[in-house]
């Protein structure tokens, strides 16, 4: 992306080494006009609005039909944005209901990512290594999660993540 001009970047969230959210933030800084379509295995309700707020031009799941992928690319290349019909309806329903949003939707992208990893049973050290952060920084995110979600232990964070289908 740094070395070549592209019409569109197709990006995944879960990749080895770095998070797609981190890459999206970097792309926004280096190529702010480059349209980005996020194609992910993660459900729309987990990442859809989060990646749109982070600057993506669209979001769709890998379960979508190939025809839908072509339609999404064409819409984005013509200057538009793309979300599925169900996600568009959800976004409209969510307008004006900020206080009714689930707690996990109020987390920063990094906090959300750390929550998912804790929910998956990873230790602070493993999370630090996976996200290229210091263990102290991960512990700070863990502390923020405890406060924001109103829980008191890592076990409760894990339980929260599992109950809300954030692991997987």
Throw out a few tags for this protein.
mainly alpha; 3-stranded parallel β-sheet; 168 residues; globular
Structural class: mainly alpha
- Fraction of residues in H or I helices: 40-55%
- Average pLDDT, rounded to a whole number, is 86
Low-confidence stretches: none
Major beta sheet summary: 3 strands, parallel
Number of strands: 3
Q: Judging from the principal axes of the Cα atoms, what is the shape? A: globular
User: How much of the polypeptide forms β-strand, as a percent range?
Assistant: 5-15%
| Sheet with the most strands: spatial strand order | 1-2-3
Succession of helices and strands = EHEHEHHHHHH
The end-to-end span amounts to: 29 Å
Q: What value does the Rg take, in angstroms?
A: 17 Å
How many helices? The count is 8
């Amino acid at each position: 992306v740094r070395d070549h001009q592209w019409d569109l970047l197709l990006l995944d969230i879960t990749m080895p080494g770095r998070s797609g959210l981190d890459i999206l933030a970097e792309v926004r800084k280096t190529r702010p006009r480059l349209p980005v379509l996020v194609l992910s295995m993660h459900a729309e309700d987990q990442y859809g609005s989060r990646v749109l707020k982070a600057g993506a031009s669209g979001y769709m799941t890998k379960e979508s039909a190939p025809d839908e992928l072509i339609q999404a690319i064409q819409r984005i290349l013509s200057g538009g944005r793309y979300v599925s019909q169900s996600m568009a309806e959800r976004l409209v329903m969510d307008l004006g209901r900020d206080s009714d949003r689930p707690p996990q939707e109020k987390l920063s992208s990094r906090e959300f990512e750390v929550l998912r990893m804790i929910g998956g049973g990873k230790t602070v050290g493993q999370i630090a290594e996976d996200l290229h952060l210091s263990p102290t920084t991960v512990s700070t995110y863990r502390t923020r999660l405890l406060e924001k979600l109103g829980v008191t232990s890592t076990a409760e964070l894990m339980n929260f993540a599992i109950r809300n289908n954030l692991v997987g």
